[in-house]
Amino acid sequence: MDMQRVPAREGDHNLQNYEKVRETFSWDDLKKNFSWNETGKVNIAHESVDRHAQDPTKKDKVALLYSAPDREEKVTFAELRKQSNQFANVLKKHHIEKGDRVFLFMPRSPEFYAAFFGILKTGAIAGPLFEAFMEQAVRDRLQDSEAKMLITTPDLLERVPQDDLPNLEKIVLVGKNTETSGKFIDYLKEMEVASNEFDVEWVDLEDGMLLHYTSGSTGKPKGVYHVHNAMIQHYATGDWVLDLKEDDVYWCTADPGWVTGTSYGIFAPWLHGVTNVIRGGRFSPEDWYGTLEREKVTVWYTAPTALRMLVSAGEDIVKKHDLSSLRHIMSVGEPLNPEVITWGLKAFDLRIHDTWWMTETGAQLIVNIPSEEIRPGSMGKPIPGVEASIVDNEGNEIPPNQMGNLAIKAGWPSMMRAIWKNPSKYDSYFVNGWYVSGDSAYRDEDGYFWFQGRLDDVINTAGERVGPFEVESKLIEHPAVAEAGVIGKPHPERGEIIKAFITLNDGYEESSELLEDIRQFVKTGLSAHAAPRELEVRESIPKTRSGKIMRRLLKSWELGLPTGDTSTLEE
Ligand code: 6R9
């Protein structure tokens, strides 16, 4: 299909002459922009917060523009420095050392950001958890990381299985606190008496900074380990792709439990010292348009699922809001439908710029930048300093217009440095010097990349990665369920929904009550976004002779597609 191309508009974009910059750019040159270039000792929290707080022209600028339906707050760079210093002192008092894992399990709030930077200032590794996680999801992550401390709220505490977490020494409670045991720390009380001054722990570029858990097709979620060096790329893409300028009001809608919410909800905007909008509460078209209008957002980073829901909400509601501040929109997480780009041109009179990257890559790699033509349906082209290609299974590059593995030449600054405690898993990403993403794509003659799908069984539902194994494991914990196979089923708004095929244990009869009970069991045990929207009871689940669930076959049946090679199917 020959989609209408959308040319770049004239404008004062940060990155002009993309092709020329690509030819001459080197990451080493860029390092000269950083204050640590001389010493080699860094801390991403210093670069994001303290550097601006120490600048007389910047210190009173609003860093965090927080709002939720029941709360509003403005936090300047100087205040954010002070609060994160205080929290770093609280952590030190309770014996947190460089390299310790400190996890956050709480909604977006000013306290979250103070605590997050406090952790980084001590040289500890921060592990943000999505607030909707239920007990099993929390347990898996805190156990695997051997987290020493957790920051949470009294409301969420019941989902923290304390008895199963021998390494967890202390729990900081943000909010009204009735716990009295010595294990608990009262956030407000300790912050009140903590000093405003803190000597930031200067670390090496390769020292640990962040652990983000993400799902693969097998096994439990894996801890993707990032280091302070990632900031070089957060900074560069903040410049080229986010096109951030001094006076921007920037809004990234992602939760910091996911990588977009840290790399682009925290680091990129604050490395550039811009005002960062954080909106608490739940999604609704009225709320989001209201936020764009009220906060006078200029640069907006969001996701296809949300955009599709805005499309469904219609154009009338757009017209009710004054969105004239908005000048730049980006999207990430799933394929961006060409129809959504067409709609964006009508509704906002702006192009929506797709960007591609992953938890493992730490920052954007393939993007549409403001000064280049957009080809709707394409993810764009690699950023300067990054080499992307399509390779076969042996890691050999294949010609344009042929589908294969989307791969990146290893060595970009924000690349993960390990899978926590799982070196063989880490090694399995790399073939012949290429990082192999697990996505399939092709490249056209002009170097634009076109996403085709996942090559493994990972499900992408409303932009969130869900591993079928996790859901299957939870399903079979239900007393009625004998076996389970889980797939992603295409869905117009959510990209994919989770569909589970199950067999029942003897003595159980299929009924809508039972299916709803099973669904709730996954929802309350794992998380809402992992609960199957569709459940189908079958006589058996197809498996290979070695006992692996043949999800591909389930999917073909579901979609009425040819079943392909079934020679390994168990009789
Ligand atoms: C940042 C983030 C990564 C997976 C990735 C791919 C899908 C991300 C996309 C996209 C099509 C895009 N994905 N961006 N698919 N077009 N622009 O989303 O990280 O949660 O780890 O997901 O998401 O399948 O492999 P993560």
Automatic annotation (TrEMBL):
<feature type="domain" description="AMP-dependent synthetase/ligase">
    <location>
        <begin position="57"/>
        <end position="418"/>
    </location>
</feature>
<dbReference type="InterPro" id="IPR025110">
    <property type="entry name" value="AMP-bd_C"/>
</dbReference>
<keyword id="KW-0007">Acetylation</keyword>
<dbReference type="InterPro" id="IPR045851">
    <property type="entry name" value="AMP-bd_C_sf"/>
</dbReference>
<keyword id="KW-0436">Ligase</keyword>
<dbReference type="GO" id="GO:0003987">
    <property type="term" value="F:acetate-CoA ligase activity"/>
</dbReference>
<keyword id="KW-0547">Nucleotide-binding</keyword>
<protein>
    <recommendedName>
        <fullName>acetate--CoA ligase</fullName>
        <ecNumber>6.2.1.1</ecNumber>
    </recommendedName>
</protein>
<feature type="domain" description="AMP-binding enzyme C-terminal">
    <location>
        <begin position="470"/>
        <end position="548"/>
    </location>
</feature>
<dbReference type="InterPro" id="IPR000873">
    <property type="entry name" value="AMP-dep_synth/lig_dom"/>
</dbReference>
<dbReference type="InterPro" id="IPR042099">
    <property type="entry name" value="ANL_N_sf"/>
</dbReference>
<keyword id="KW-0067">ATP-binding</keyword>
<dbReference type="InterPro" id="IPR020845">
    <property type="entry name" value="AMP-binding_CS"/>
</dbReference>
<dbReference type="Pfam" id="PF13193">
    <property type="entry name" value="AMP-binding_C"/>
</dbReference>
<dbReference type="Pfam" id="PF00501">
    <property type="entry name" value="AMP-binding"/>
</dbReference>
